[in-house]
Amino acid sequence: MSIQLHAHARAFPIGATILQVEDVSLRFGGVKALTKISFDVREHEVRAIIGPNGAGKSSMLNVINGVYRPQEGTLSFRGSKLEGMTPRRAAHMGISRTFQNIALFKGMSVLDNIMAGRNLRMHASFLEVAFRLPRALREENENRDKVEEIIEFLEIEHIRKTPVGRLPYGLQKRVELGRALAAEPKILLLDEPMAGMNIEEKQDMCRFVLDVNDHYGTTVVLIEHDMGVVMDISDRVVVLDYGKKIGDGSPDEVRADQNVIDAYLGVAH
Amino acid sequence: MRDSQEPLDTFPKLLMHHARQRGERAAIREKKHGIWKTLTWMQLSEKVQAIAAALSESGLKRGGHLALLGDNRPRLYAAMCAAQWLGAVAVPLYEDAAASELVLPLFSAGVTHIFAEDQEQVDKILEILPQCPAVTTIVYDEDRGMRHYAQPQLISFAALREKGLDLLAARQGMLQDELAKGNGSDAAAMFFTSGTTGQAKGVVLTHDSLIDRARVAAELEGLNDTDVAVAYLPPAWIGQNIFSYAQPMVVGYCICCPESQETFLSDMREVGPTYFFAPPRVLEALLTQVSIRMEDAGRLKRALYERCMSLAGRVGARITSGEAVGLGDRMAYSLGNLAIYGPLRDVLGMSQVRVAYTAGEAVGPELLMFFRSIGINVKQLYGSTETSVFVCVQPNGQVKPDTVGPAVQGVELKFTANRELLVRSPGLFKEYHLNPEATRAAKDADGWFHTGDAGYLGEDGHLRIIDRVKDVGALADGTLFAPKLLENKLKFFPFVKEAVAFGDGRDRVCMFVNIDMAAVGNWADKKNIAYTGHSDLASRAEVHALIGDCVAKVNADLATDSTLSSSQIHRFLVLHKELDADDGELTRTRKVRRGFIGDRYQTLVAALYGSQPSVRVDAEVRYEDGRVAMVSADVKLCNAKTYPAAPLKAA
Fold first, then answer.
1. Pairing label, strands B355-358, B473-474
2. A152 in B contact zone (CB under 8 Å)
3. A220 is in which domain, residue-wise?
4. Pairwise CB contact (< 8 Å): A215 & B144
5. N or C terminus of chain A: which is more exposed, having fewer CB within 10 Å?
């Protein structure tokens, strides 16, 4: 991909650590999903989490998002330790996520789905909206403006009124990304955004992910299986295997790491 | 007031005239972020002056050239007018051109300033910048992705406008001088021809020729300042410039810029244009859309549609032309109007259309009649870049499927021995830029332009175009071989997107066919045929049978015409790859380059004229980013059903 053409200057240079995961362990009964995982995410970077199936990648994302509560370990956001993370708290803090299997409202239009992502920005009360009082109208206009910006950004103007259930898979994933962006997140968690896509769709999605990182400065943490994508677009990579961290560094470092190679290709016992 | 005496002989002067006469009326509308934003004539004139001031400051001089590389946007047209204000020449270029294709126009026209729409266009220009050292300024409109570009030539449109506004007060005098200095014989714009053969040439058109032709055509159709048009075709094409720039400047009507190519149809529905131009491929696409959606409709609707369309086929076109039709039919037609034709026009966005033109290449009669039969006044016109479009236009009430109409006011027509059409008109181009040889070859000493088209005038005074002179050929037995005619007949079927006919000097006609992915895909879905993509679908026996049916129908039609019955299609193949302008097989205006295609696919052509059932072919494909790859496929060659020629009718 010719993205390297203008890679010399980032609009948002990678900054200090924004998210710190320390010794996180997660168990489901006897199953150890994560064992003492520690890594950091720096501001404005694209961090990939990779690993064979069942390595605990989605669980890691769910921990960051507050869906799962780890039995041990801490999460720190911008230096301050977080206690009792819930999805609601995560959203308020500026963490948005997408889901591997798409969790859109299939009967609603693209516009409404992305608008739903603005939920936390809607402060007008039920009665204000019901009677269309000035504050509610103003807010609606602002929200609509922002949503339209996202629609233009993701090039989905032609389907803004289409019910999501009728869209092809690739476009649904884009709408899902749009909904996550609508909350204006500081950290975007993407759970296998390229799953089920052909090469062209993957290239498009990569472009959007990079554009989000470049244009809005959003820190991106993504789980991905396609090694090409990971090598091309991520700044740093964390490798998990059987719930343990076995690699952490730049894509090239990780690719050459013997432990990682063994985990993916298998080792003769 | 000086304006009453001064002739409005340039576009900037016309702009100021409208700013005074109808300053509060809408000049250009643009759909952005889902809503239509309006720019009035007054606002447009202010914008143009600001840009002109800034461009002058940045070195654009009289006689200079400003290139425009973008989609239809108010800012593009403002830049165009601003350049003309300073006496410079606007050079609109095709947005989808590859970087290497831009070198010739930019270099030969000595372009110093470029207006680029977005990062993609800027990247292309930066790639070829070393080969175009004259370029000093690149103005970009969309700032997405432009944040970390540090080249000194770059400036955003917004920033340019800001600079211009600051300079406006100080430069008023200079601007008024420049406006007054401009006169009709100045070059207004340069358009590069589509280049179906050889290198593209820069056609230089003056304000006079463009304004003259725009005015004549506007008067013919009674256009006024309440009309509305949609600007959706490439600005690099002369037709787009005439319909969305020259004519609005002359008449004062409003143009609307849709949000994107994909939303064009729904945007058009919102606008409800009264004046519309569609090249045949757009009309074909609209027809295909209707066909596909009708296939999805319920049984009752389909039955109603079929009945109404057969009625329309019988009498609709005559009603649209205002001819006398029986009372019973007329009443049935009005019912049809309520039930089908009206809603159909509405869905197509054409319910307000008073005048619709089509042109660009020979239009299939069935296509034209379809639209006329449902009450849309689509007419044909004929012209070219070198003639500022309007040479012949069909007047209302004289619309026939196989002609392009009588000559428009001011135009003279003449024919050579081998039927080549010569034109003399006030709308003729000034010259081919920096190419006096080609200019002399095209425009002779008496001012007659050699169009390169073969045609003849019928008894009704209407011009009939056969094909390009060099393409009109003959079969081995001497009978007429008019490839475009055959291709258009086949392309009328929604399943066929593109067709290429071979037969010059051969004993029979054979064809390449490109399937229309949308229509055939839809058909395949209904038949539960699974496929992975275009190549896969194109190789299916069922699809070959489908196309074979279409070819058979065309042959049946050809058999009824004595001149054409020997050009029935004997063998055909469905091409595994779509013909593409990026591969040089089509021009940027989607015209087929028969010679190039014949060369590139020699093996296929040879196989078609042989008797094998299939052949293996390898072809080079060029991706949009310039990379080249090989695509190979086994192509099946199909025999088509032909019909014996109909016996000549007794005199």
1. unpaired
2. yes
3. 1-94+185-269
4. yes
5. C
